[in-house]
Every structure is written in C-alpha cells, then in structure tokens.
Amino acid sequence: MTSRRSFLKNAAACAPASVLAAQTVPAMQSAVPTTYDIATLPQHYDVDRTVINLENAYWGVMPRETAAVYAEKIQYVNRLNSLFARNAIPSNTMDAQLDEARASIASLLHCDTEEIALTRSGSDGLESLIVNYNLLKPGDAVVYCDLDYDAMIFAMDFLEERRGAKIVRFDMPEPATTANILAAYEDILKRTPNAKLLLVTHVSNRTGLVTPVREIVAMARARGVDTIVDAAHGIGCLNVTLPDFGADFVGWSMHKWLAAPLGTGAVYIRKSRIRDVEIAFDNHDVPEADIRARLPAGTINFAAAMTVPAAIDFHRKVGPAAKEQQLRTLRNRWVDAARSIPGVEITVPDDPARFCAITSFRLRGMHTDADAERVQHQLLEKHNILTVARKGVSKGPVVRVTPALYNTPADCDALIRALETEHNLFA
C-alpha cells in the first residue's frame, strides 16, 4: 500500500467500469471547435449581482458548466475515498487524471507535459521556484521591483536570510512606457553586475501594468541572469503562451483568469533546466529528474485538479483572443471615460501592449494607504461597487478595478458615474 503522498508518483485509482459509468465526468477535449457568443457570456455565470463586483483579480468565478464538473468530481472523490487514493482499482489511475490536467495545460500553453507541474496556487509554485533555485552563491544578487507580488517579494527576501543573497530592489517608473520599463531594467542590471536571479511580473496585481517580459528575459539572459516569471495575472487574461515569454521558469494561478477551482496553479520549468531547481523538502516520492519533485508532497484537492481540463475547455470555447478582447472592451469602457474626469489618474499608459483587464486609478489628493481604503469603502457603501485598495506602489497607493466575463457594460457605467461623483473626495 502506497503512502498518501504517492499521487505524485504512482497515485490513486478510480472506480471500475460499472462505477465509472455512474459517477465520472467525460474527459474534456483539448481542442473545441465551437465558440461562445461574447454577448451571452454573462448568462454562463451564477453570481450574486446585488453588488457590482469589479474586484475579479482575486480569483476567477467558475462559469456554471465548470462548477458543475467540479461538483461531480467532488462527489466522485468523496464517495470512493481511499479506494480512489490508495490505488485499489487500477482501471483508471489518479496519475492518468492528473496527467490529463497537465496535458491540457501544456496543450493550451504550447509546451511539453513533462515541463508542467500542478500546484496549490500561483504563489505556492512561484515560491518553490524561488527558494529552491540552486545556482545562487552567497553574495549573488537577486532583483525585484515594487510592482511585484508581496508573496514573491517575501520569497526573494528569504534568499537573503537563508542563502546569503544580496537583495536589490528598484521602482517601476511612471509613466511606465515600454521604453521607460526597458530602460529601468537595463539600468538595474547594469548597476548590479553580481545579479544572478531576476523576478519579473507579467501583469502587476497592483496597477495592472503589463511588462514586456520577453525583452526583459532576453536582456537578463545576455548578462547571465536567470529570470522567474510571475504570470499569475497574464495567462488566461491575455492571449499568450509560454513561448511568448522566452523564460525558463514560470508560475501562475489556474484559479484566476482560467477560472479553475480555488487551490489550483501550475509551474513550468524548461526541460533542460529542471535540475537547476532543487527537489522540495527531500521529496523522493518522485524521480529526481521529474518536475513534480520540485513541489512539496502532500494531499491535494484531487477534485479541483481534475476539473482543470473543464476550465480550459470553457476558455477554449470562448476563445483566448475573443476573451482578451472582451475583457479589454469592458476595461476600456470605464477607463476611457475616467481619463476625462478631473482628478482621476489612470496608473498605466494608454498603450494596449501595456495594459489588460486589470487597471488601477488614483484620485487627486489620495496619498496614503488609508486614503485608498477610504475610496474603496466609499465606492462600496455609497455606490454599491466593489473594488480594492492596493498598497506597495512606490509612487503611491492605488485602487484596483477588474471586470470579468460575467460583468456588463452597465457595471462599468456605474463605476464611471461613481467616479464623477467622488473625484473631489480629497479636495
């Protein structure tokens, strides 16, 4: 009998044919020929509309059909219990089901299945990449900026505490034009000749800025610097694949813009670089050359992982390009109007290459974290609109707005009216 962690190596079986017929969900196809009508997308979601929710960057609401698959998978795993988790029925192994999830991700993002590992979240995977990166020597520098995600910053700081690395932090310029961004990265790399590891965030969770990742990765590689890419808010929101980054190490959330169940994420390590990331916590349940050895062992939410192909199926039905365009349409509806409201500052440039669905703003006179939180509360309590205050931006706190596929143009118009009312809040 195998250990409870053996799903990573030789894991659990499902039911025999008679049970499967009654309980399993048909495998989702990796390529789906149909495309949903963009105008009807809100109808695919069962959400509470008593509040206008424009804070969808926390995690993505599952569409109704994905949620239904998840419910069936939960029932399936719960009913079979240790029959499922102890390899008791070899006709349909847990390895095969988890590999289906990995294969669906690899197909969508144009890489090999062996280069993908499932994680519990984007943070879980990225933290593993950062703290287990094994080419650092004491005195080597690791570099990040103010717009990177807090959990990733904490992981980079950990390298100083435990590995003797030197922390080098810089601030993203505003306005963050492509030229300014590349100049900032070139400058920090030039000023840090001992740099070994660079963290680059594809889409900032704070402002929504989209960075030119491929150019930055190439710039760093030319100086012998490895890059870990945080793609938590890019994959599934923008029509990108892993080759677009050109990076060797990437982590992201499956439960954000791909709207898989909570507790799902993934990492990519280029096959030739897998041994440059240590195995996690001496995880010998998996062969040393396997990417999955780089993640902590332990029981995962099997049902959530098994629902990943269904989430990708819905993403394909909408169409990655059509999805990006719809999210941009909703975002542009409020941003284009807000730019003309006195006292409202949009914190990303008016360049389609540098923004996506997520966009933050400031009001004139909004200088402190408490000010940003006041705007958040005012929008919710007075206008019935949920946004979120974000701190940590060196140029000052912001309020983040993020529409999703279930939002409507009317939701964005409500935000415009609210900003027209509140633009002098700190006057």
The beta-strand count equals 13
CATH architecture of the largest domain: 3-Layer(aba) Sandwich
Number of self-contained structural domains: 2
Tell me the CATH topology of the largest domain. Answer: Aspartate Aminotransferase, domain 2
Helix content: 25-40%
For the record, the CATH class of the largest domain is Alpha Beta
Q: Can you write the helix and strand succession as a string?
A: HHEHHHEHEHEHEHEEEHHHEEHEEEH
Query: Would you identify the CATH H-level superfamily of the largest domain?
Result: Type I PLP-dependent aspartate aminotransferase-like (Major domain)
| Estimated structural class | alpha/beta
Can you summarize the main beta sheet?
7 strands, mixed
Instruction: Bin the strand percentage.
Output: 5-15%
Low-confidence blocks of residues: 1-33
Order of strands, main sheet, comes to 2-8-7-6-5-3-4
* SS field, number of helical segments: 14
> What is the radius of gyration?
22 Å
pLDDT average, as an integer?
91
Shape: globular
